[in-house]
Every structure is written in C-alpha cells, then in structure tokens.
Amino acid sequence: TFSFSISRSQFSKMPVKYVEATLSTFNDVFDKFQADAPNHKANLILFLADKDPSTSLSWCPDCVRAEPVIYKKVEESGLDVALLKAYVGDRPTWRNPQHPWRLDPRFQLKGVPTLMRWENGAGASRLEDHEAHIESKIHSLLFSSA
Question: Would residue 10 show up in a list of annotated catalytic residues for this protein?
Fold first, then answer.
C-alpha cells in the first residue's frame, strides 16, 4: 500500500499582523500602518471599546460579540492582512460628541465596533456596530478587492 502524510504547515494560513492603538498613540501607529499598507493584501481598522479593568471585557456588548468572529474570519481568510485595533476609550470618552474619531473626516465613527477596510489612504468600505459580527459581511469586506 501507498501512504503519505501532509503536514499542517504546508497549508498554513498567511499571518495576520495585529497592531493596537489608543487615542493617545493612534497618530504614530496609524502613520506606520499606512506606510506598511502596500505590503498587505487587506488592511483593516477595527474601532472598538476599551476593556473594563474590573472585568477584562469590553464595556461594549456589540464589541464582545463581534471581536471573536472578526478575528476568526480574518485568520481563516488566507490573506495577508494587517489589522489595526483602535480603542476608542472608556464609555464616557466615547459618548462625547466631540470624540476625535467621530469628527475625523477619514473615519466619521458613529458606533463601535466598526470594521473598516482601508485602501489608498481612505476607508473603502465598513461594517458598523449592528453588522460587524456577521460572518458573510466580514467575508465580503475582506475580499472586496482581493
């Protein structure tokens, strides 16, 4: 009889490059993210709520629901992806109508989580809070220009 084996590493997925930023570190991290963007097939920004120190969970239930689904879909995509996780702050910071990412014309955030595909120096497409956990929509966002 003939037998063979194939190691999992022969079918390994492309690594996902995760980068994190807060309001105070965002500009520097974002500059590097943009400079590195041409090296990746897909560049995503995930705007999400900070974790509550007392629970180690996000104060935002939609973020808690969406995060694992987003990470799973990104990692399963097989694409070379850079994912910038941008933390909007605690609840009072985010609720402020003058929050910088609400006002920034590049982002114009309305809710968290927001998953944005970043292409050519601009947000090409996005999934907002009520849809950011839907696998088929995440897939479409990932492969919209792949």
Answer: no
Q: What CA–CA distance (Å, rounded) separates 115 from 45?
A: 6
Give residue-wise pLDDT tens across range 51-80.
988 888 899 999 999 999 999 999 999 999
The tens digit of pLDDT for each residue in 92-126 reads 999 999 999 999 999 999 999 999 999 999 999 99
| Counted domains in the chain | 1
Q: Could you count the other beta carbons within 10 Å of the beta carbon of residue 125?
A: 14
What predicted TM-score, i.e. pTM, was given to this entire model? 0.88
Q: Which of 42, 44, 45, 60 is catalytic?
A: 60
> What CATH code is carried by the domain that includes residue 64?
3.40.30.10
Answer yes or no: 80 catalytic. Answer: no
Domain assignment of residue 2, yes or no: no
Where does 36-106 show beta strands of DSSP type E?
A: 42-48, 51-52, 57-58, 81-87
| 54 within a domain of the structure (yes/no) | yes
- Residue from 63, 74, 86, 132 carrying the catalytic annotation: 63
Domain extent, residue 77, equals: 16-143
